[in-house]
Fold this protein.
Amino acid sequence: MPAEDRKERVRALLDAVRADGRTALTAPEAKVLADAYGIAVPGEELARDVEEAVARAARFDGPVVMKIVSPDILHKTEAGGVVVGVAGAADVRAAFHRIVAAARAYAPVAHIEGVQVQELLPSGPAAQEVIVGAVTDPTFGKVVAFGLGGVLVEVHKDVTFRLAPVDADEALSMLDSIRAAQVLRGVRGAPGVDRGAVAEQIRRVSQLVTEFPEIAEVDLNPVVATPRGALAADVRVLLADRAPAPRRTYTRAEILASMRRLMRPRSVAVIGASNEPGKIGNSVMRNLIDGGFSGEIHPVNPRADDIEGRKAYKSVTDIPGEVDVAVFAIPAKFVASALEEVGRKGVPNAVLIPSGFAETGEQGLQDELVAIGERHGVRLLGPNIYGYYATWQGLCATFCTPYDVKGPVALTSQSGGIGMAILGFARATNTGVSAIVGLGNKSDLDEDDFLTWFGEDADTRCVAMHLEDLKDGRAFVEAARATVPKKPVVVLKAGRTAAGARAAGSHTGALAGDDAVYDDILRQAGVVRAPGLREMLEYARALPVLPTPKGDNVVIITGAGGSGVLLSDAVTDNGLRLMEIPADLDASFRAFIPPFGAAGNPVDITGGEPPSTYEATIRLGLEDARVHALVLGYWHTIVTPPMVFAESTARVIEEFRARGIDKPVVASLAGDVEVEEACRYLFERGVVAYPYTTEQPVAVLGAKYRWARAAGLLGGDR
Amino acid sequence: MPAEDRKERVRALLDAVRADGRTALTAPEAKVLADAYGIAVPGEELARDVEEAVARAARFDGPVVMKIVSPDILHKTEAGGVVVGVAGAADVRAAFHRIVAAARAYAPVAHIEGVQVQELLPSGPAAQEVIVGAVTDPTFGKVVAFGLGGVLVEVHKDVTFRLAPVDADEALSMLDSIRAAQVLRGVRGAPGVDRGAVAEQIRRVSQLVTEFPEIAEVDLNPVVATPRGALAADVRVLLADRAPAPRRTYTRAEILASMRRLMRPRSVAVIGASNEPGKIGNSVMRNLIDGGFSGEIHPVNPRADDIEGRKAYKSVTDIPGEVDVAVFAIPAKFVASALEEVGRKGVPNAVLIPSGFAETGEQGLQDELVAIGERHGVRLLGPNIYGYYATWQGLCATFCTPYDVKGPVALTSQSGGIGMAILGFARATNTGVSAIVGLGNKSDLDEDDFLTWFGEDADTRCVAMHLEDLKDGRAFVEAARATVPKKPVVVLKAGRTAAGARAAGSHTGALAGDDAVYDDILRQAGVVRAPGLREMLEYARALPVLPTPKGDNVVIITGAGGSGVLLSDAVTDNGLRLMEIPADLDASFRAFIPPFGAAGNPVDITGGEPPSTYEATIRLGLEDARVHALVLGYWHTIVTPPMVFAESTARVIEEFRARGIDKPVVASLAGDVEVEEACRYLFERGVVAYPYTTEQPVAVLGAKYRWARAAGLLGGDR
């Protein structure tokens, strides 16, 4: 059907349903949509009375399925409104009466239009039930779903999601994204299903919901897939009550222009600067000055001439020259009028530290700020934040304790508490950061904007973000896709398990718990998801330290056999691959280890060995181009004390780096407390090392691999 | 059938199969076993030729299944040897010819006995395929399995295991132990299956393999379960090549008697004691003396009169009086003769530090020690160990660094490297231990023995064990079941993912990866399994500190909303339950928190609150008897600095404890580095607190709950 005819027909039908005051389409209506978009369904016809049913059934070759048709009955099976495999006139008659009687008993006031008589779908081992659907996600908009069908679908939740629309290749990729992928390819001698036909059902559903955003949910459940096709046995379509309001968007160039002035300002004004210790306006001033910010710092306070040794202005409008950032340190009720002045001055960025807005129920006060910002072109960070740090600028625009360890990782947090945890962890581990940013209420600037900036920022080599929600999931995905090829993006998505609260009118809806959708779509955007706060912090600290692996071959070299076993567990848990050591390399390893040590992988050099054995085997691993990453298991002994191991290992790594050989090396140190110093020493020299854990170093290596794959830096997809 | 007849009939059949040189039973043979044990199967008969098939089929009411019968064809479907739903003489004839032809093509030399004609099993939504089986696990012996059947069984691996035999109740519990349990109870209007009939199939299979240990595997796949019964559609039985050799066992009283002398010795001899610093025999002597051991210490060395100020003996036999423990610090090759002397002296325990035995391939040398030990009744710890610590005795019988922080947790490790990690972690966190024991090669004493002892040891309130294998899984389960009601047992099972290497001849075998069986059976034994090394260490440190919860109601009190969200995620991840706060308690919380703070659960007191708000809300949680555990989320602010929070919280907890109210309280501290000191302060005072992580405190609370449930100290089973 030509696209225009198709749209016209669906438009007319949806309008009629709306006019009827309904949001759920009947089966015949849904079939009109399916036909318009080429979604394959079994032959079927509506029978308004029992004799019509007999006539319809006679037309199909073989037994039929009979189903109640009523706009008031959504769950037909529960209503006793479905009979499968009816053959012969007598049985069709009996089934018709039974269905109508059951439906009347189930919903006495339901309007019953008749009974649908449908071609019986194929069954048996060659027929596989799958589910294809689409939902409207509050964060990501139209999302298409594919999974295995059948009675177990809600038990196993073996389902995958993509942003709609999808093209043919992406649709096909969904068949391989479920755990039961192999079943679709055929197992135990059974033939596989027609993958192209299934993918086509997915693609067409995604096209339908994209072209008609008012369609909230589509559910093809089941789609019966066989080696010769895929038919949707049931099509359910639900309309949204209303279309979501469009959000204001900015171009990439606009975002980068304002972000550059926010993150590399030449001039900062502090609205509400104060001389009084303990006041936020004083803490911010002191942090700006003590942090060593080399640009201009202008205190603004109508009741002071001089603050912390700087000339104070009555209003931001009195400051001579351009101002890049206005940091607000005044109570909520005064913010709007001060923001007006900031707008008149032409300041592009307002950093709104004060709380007392949406988070305390004062949504109106916050909306007012947003309106002022939009009117004047002022972008807002916050409100309700601790501020932000840009260490390479010496900028601590915050009331918290200053932090000045420059480095490659940029971190953001939606919550102030998590911001303080970031700060404490960074200080405790001496993690170098390029920025720490509080996003708070995200009235305007949010993760997309910062991701866009950090993607371009040469001082940032890794981005880590704590978030509880995304205002615009698609904008985030776009920013992530632009950034991931250049640097890792780590996300801690909080509120994972709070899902399930969404009212769902379809199977797909019930499967699309918030987190299931987040998880699939963030992964497709190439984001490395951290399972918890500590992991986000460890990934942020370690990922920029580790060089990018050039292949999948991981080798464990261990002094402790016991660590080797646990490290192997961790390698498997993290989706990494233990290299199968080639015979020549195995022989090389064996030359250095005792005869009872184990070559293979893990390479077990045994615990009694001197530093030279660790060194020689590590050299072998670095030298051999077939090895791509090393996992070291150190065992504290009198023969090889921790710092001796650390110094020797760091020296070897450094030597190879000078030769241009730079592979990721992580280490687990098992020993007495001296291993802690050895870990710090190694970490500072590019070996990601942890004491008393075999899991952490491998988890970090796994995160690096996940990023490298997403960034397309490793061949294949594991 | 009377038990004796049953056994006799099976005995005769198995002997005939053996005599035939086979290990796989044919379907008719398997049916004899099934009938003898009352395992319900469909009606079926063997047809040796095509006319016999027609006659057999005519006897059953409805269509039949036809299957090839050949001792040489195990995978009938792959061989094209199965046709389902054959009805009428013509079709039966055609099917017979087709099956035989396909089987000949598949396995030209196979001996074909005929075609089995079988009653067609029920199908449709009310018929659920499940799998019931039994395998012989190298660690646990006969293990019975139950899971969901169908083509997806190997994809979803939704299967559960129990030690065989099981009684009716335990069999029934297996139906609820799979993820798809709800399906068996009936979903979406479909009726549930006959649970009793399914459980009976499980029970009877477990009885069969228990009474005939030579049966290696049994596979009922599928069992078709309906609301009116459960029939095994296919029964496969495999015999073992040989029965496993029985192991020598000790009574509980014998174990306790020798363990008491090992762990609370009055007199210790050091074989190979030395004055030369750096030698193991010197390190052991120095550690025994410096550790403050108050019993007798007798150095044994034929070439010295005096060692570290103590009279040295030429031989252990020269020592006057009884000796409880002989610690060996001599090279492997001298151990056997010294052990003979130890045996002659009547010393009940030999601690074999030396390496150079089974771990280096010298199995013969190790077997010699075991034989000497058995002859003289000397129990052996090791060889190939770092030794052991018994802090309450001041005993450091090890060559490693001494450790003397007395406390409630006993730790064992199979690996020396992991032992060093235990030592370092304990020292770094000031964890009080009752014992640290290296088990090494486990030539004799193993986890069962130590678990039996620690279960009785009044100084031990928590046991944590690192292990790579169990010599006797059933003995371990028995010891764990005796210990768990009294104190938590934490196990880190290494080598989780190395499984899958086992050659499996049945579906059940393929599902029974080593770790799947370990995981189920350890859980049933009440063991708290740690997912990794660090978790084992953290559980060991924290579990004895936390009081036992008296119910399931967990309340989160947080200053940081962001921490509250992450703590909620962690609560769900750990299988804990966020209390639904009753209205009166909610009102009480609201009285203390700002109007925009959130009561409910988490109780969000908001970040700007003074210490008094934390204190008041914590008091409420402790006071209210409906609240059973508290999770605190602290946010570092100027108003409530870390140590102020820590001191106030510790004071309140102490006050309630003095009143006899002692609930588990864990805390996540988000803040700058001062939170580390605050965490140490809190931990020492009974509040399990961690910095920079929301996951760790809740994981530990989750471990405490898992133990409390296993110990029967909480109502219900979640």
